[in-house]
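Lab notebook: predicted structure, single chain.

Context: the supervisor wants predicted structures on file for every construct in the current expression panel, including those that have not yet been purified. This is the next one on the list. No modifications to the sequence; it matches the entry in the shared construct table.
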Amino acid sequence: MSISEERAIVQKYIGGFPWLMVIWGLGGFLLWVALWPLAYTGQIPLWLGSIVATVILSACYLPTHEAQHGNISRPNTPLRWFNELVGHVSVFPLIFPYRLHRAIHLKHHAHSNDVERDPDIYMKADTIWGAAKNAWLSKQPGHAGSLADNVLEDSPNKDRLVLEAILVTRLAWILMALLAWSGFALEVLMLWWIPRQVAGIYTPVTLSWAPHHPMKETGRYHDTRGWKSPVGTILSSGMEYHLVHHLFPSIPLNKTPAAYRELKPLLEAEGASLNGL
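Prediction complete. Output recorded below exactly as produced.
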């Protein structure tokens, strides 16, 4: 497959307004907010609200991921503010500061599997259980995770990004404390704290570990793999086709399976690890 043929395929999947991700991101956030009065007033049982909240938080990183790559609206375009709105709002329940995580994520793309420079290398593990442990440890005191000191050392915006991240996280924790103090402690536990703990493990295991395992190879066609998820494409957040995203970040998540099928001959010719996908 020639470069021109590759580009012709890729261009078919780039462009158009990603309504799915916008509805997913903003709709998911609004549904999460709606769970609070619904559960507090007894219109739904709290345990059901907790399950729904866990699903929402486990999926809310995907819209912000699209925003990080400008797939909702590119820089210097009239709707760029909307791209940033989706990026900030959709991931707030996870308490992930959007702009800092965008900078970190772009570093991951530039240095995937580089033991010195990939901010996601902390997820390297032999098994999924080891990866889950790494994800949990990264949230504990004394563990930096993807926020290691050298990750943004060459970024002129490092101080501003870190300050903004501190403000966002402190705002979230203060809000959580005020809600608990005001008599909503059980709702905070069931609708925010527990779902965030579950999603905080699911997200890096699914998005960082699974598509890059065993995190040993570098190079355009070798730092990410195709893989057949035992729980299916939806429950693995579409990460079976994450290789396509790393090659062509402008292709929206929901279009990567179709793009993969067309690009598969190229990927096989380049020796990409597809694992039967």
